[in-house]
Amino acid sequence: MRSVFRSAVFLLCLGLALSRLEITNRWNTGYEAILHIHIDEETHGWHLVLEFDRPVETLEVFVAKIESQRNNQEFTLVNESWDPDFPPNTDWPMLFIVRHADGNAATLIRATFNGKPVDVGEGGGPDPTGPVPTTTTTTTTTTTTEKPGPPGEYNYGDVLGKSLLFYEAQRTGKLPAGNRIPWRGDSFMNDGRDNGLDLTGGYFDAGDHVKFGFPMAAMTTIIGWGLVDNREGYAAAGELANGESALRWSLDYFIKAHTSPNELYGQVGDGNVDHAFWGRPEEFPESSARPSWKITASAPGSELAGETSAAFTTGYLVFKDSDAGYAGELLRHARELYDFANNFRGKYTAAIPNAAAFYESWSGFGDELGWAAAWLYRATGEEKYLNDVRAHYSEFGLGGRPQEFGWDDKKAGLQVLLAKITDDPAYKQQAESFCNFIVNDIPRSPKGLAYISQWGSLRHVSNCAFVCLQAADAGINTNAYRNFATQQINYILGDSGRSYVVGYGNNPPTRPHHRGSSCPSRPAVCDWSSGMNNPGPNGQVLTGALVGGPDGQDNYKDDRNDYVQNEVATDYNAGFQ
C-alpha cells in the first residue's frame, strides 16, 4: 500500500469536472491531472494520443500502455488487454502524471481518442505552495472472467490513519497517556518477571495475546522500510508521527528483549494456554502461565536474530536524522544481532519449541542472514556486509524465484532491496522474475484478486504488492507493478464490492476473529459466550484491521469463527500500509 499512500492527494475526485482537463495536483517537478474523455460509441479496443507543447521528462499512466512516443512530446497510449471495452455514452476519467526537471511544466495541447479530438481546455485544481509527494496511483481492478465495475474513490490517507489505529489496538504493556483506543488499557505488566526481567511492551500478534518475536520483527522491518522510503507519504497524510510511534513501540520492546549480545527473548506467552482464554487482555488471569523464552549462543535462532537485526536497522534509518542517540543505539543492536545470527547458527523453533505450532520457519534461516546483512550494508555502506550477502546468496541459494514474500520467506524482499542499493543487474533480474510471476502468473479471482494462498489471502497479496512497488521504485517495470498494486489494494478497499478493512468503506467486516474487540463494553463480562460465540458484531470496532479475506472465487463470510477469513494480525497490515 506504500505507493498508494504516497499520492499527493489521498482522494482522487473522479466525478464531474468543470472542464475536460483537470489539474488535481502540482509540485515543483511535475503535476497530476485527469483528462475527462466522453466516449459516445460502444468501444472495443482504443488508442489515445497525447501531445504536449514541449518534451516531458516522464509520463506516467496507470490504466493504459504507452505504445510509442515521439521526442518525449507526443505519446500514443493503447488499452491494456484486460480492459479494452467501453459502453456507449461513457465519461472516462483518465489520470496521468507529468514530470519535468527544469521547472517548466509541459502543457497538454492536443489529444485524440480513436482519432477523434478531445477537449483539453484546462480546468481548476489545487495549487500547493510547496513540494508534495510525487507518486500517485489511480483506481482500477482487473478480472479474468468479467469486466470490473467502475473504479472506486478511496481516501488513502484515511486508510493509512486507520491502519495505524489497528496497531495501537494491538499494543500491550503500559499504554501512553495519549492512547487513542478507548476500550484498551494497560496489560501484561508482569511480562518477563519469570526471568527477572521487564519484557513489557510490544504487540500482540493477532486475535490472541502472545508476543511472537519472529513475526513481530518481520512486520517491524516492513513498517520501517515503508517509513524509510516513503517518509513524505506519511507526512502528507498527517501520519508521520503516528507511523514513527508504531515503529518505536516495537523497537523499544526489542531493546528490552535483547539482553546481551548473544541473548534475545523471542516469545512471551504460551500459545496453547493463551488460546484457551477468550476475553480482554487486561483481564487475562494472573494465575495462567505467561512464560518468556530466549535464544542464546548454546540454543541459537538465526531467523529470529537476523530478522530482529533487520528491524533495528530500518529503525536506525528512520530515526538517524531526528534522534541520533536513539538511532545509534538501534544500530548497535542491529550489528550485534546480525553477528549473533551468523556466528551461532540454528533454527529458532529448536530453542523456542512453543513457536513451532504457530510460526515455524519453513524457509530456513539463510534468507534472514542475507536480509539482515543487506540492510546493514544499506545503513552503513560497509563492504563487509555486502560480501556477507554474496556469501549467503551462494551458500543458501537465495537467487531463485520465491513464491511469495512474508514473515517467513524474505528472499523476494532481499532481491528487491539489493536491486535498489547495488549496481548488480543480477539482482534486478531476480526482482523482475519474482514480480512478473506475481503480476502475470498468479491465478486471479473472478473480481481480480491475485490469489496466492488461502490463509489470509489479502495479507499475501498486500505483501507482494508492497515489495513489487519497491521494485517499481528501482525502475523495474514501473507502470505495470504500480498498476498491479493499485488494482489489488482497491480490490481490498471496495472494488470487489465490499471493504475488507474494519471500520472503512462499504460493508466492512464487523466480526473479526479478535478477542479484545469482540468484547462488550465494560462492565459487562467478556468470555467465550459474550465474545467469541456472540452472533452479532464485535462489541468494539477494531478500526483499520485487514481481515484474512476471501477465497479464490471471491467468497467471503463475515464470521468470527472462521479465522482463515477473519483473523487479523500485525503482519497482515504491514505490507498493506
Automatic annotation (TrEMBL):
Presence of keyword Signal: yes
Alphabetized InterPro entries for the sequence: Glyco_hydro_9, Glyco_hydro_9_Asp/Glu_AS, Glyco_hydro_9_His_AS
Any Pfam family matching the protein: Glyco_hydro_9
Keywords tagged on the record: Carbohydrate metabolism, Glycosidase, Hydrolase, Polysaccharide degradation, Signal
GO biological processes: polysaccharide catabolic process
Sequence segments annotated as region (Disordered): 117-153
Compositionally biased spans, kind Low complexity: 132-147
UniProt entry tagged with the keyword Hydrolase: yes
Glycoside hydrolase family domain boundaries: 156-576
Signal peptide bounds: 1-19
Molecular functions per Gene Ontology: hydrolase activity, hydrolyzing O-glycosyl compounds
Catalytic site: H513, D558, E567
PANTHER family: ENDO-1,4-BETA-GLUCANASE
Family: Belongs to the glycosyl hydrolase 9 (cellulase E) family.
Protein name as catalogued: Glycoside hydrolase family 9 domain-containing protein
Lineage of the species this protein comes from: Eukaryota, Metazoa, Ecdysozoa, Arthropoda, Hexapoda
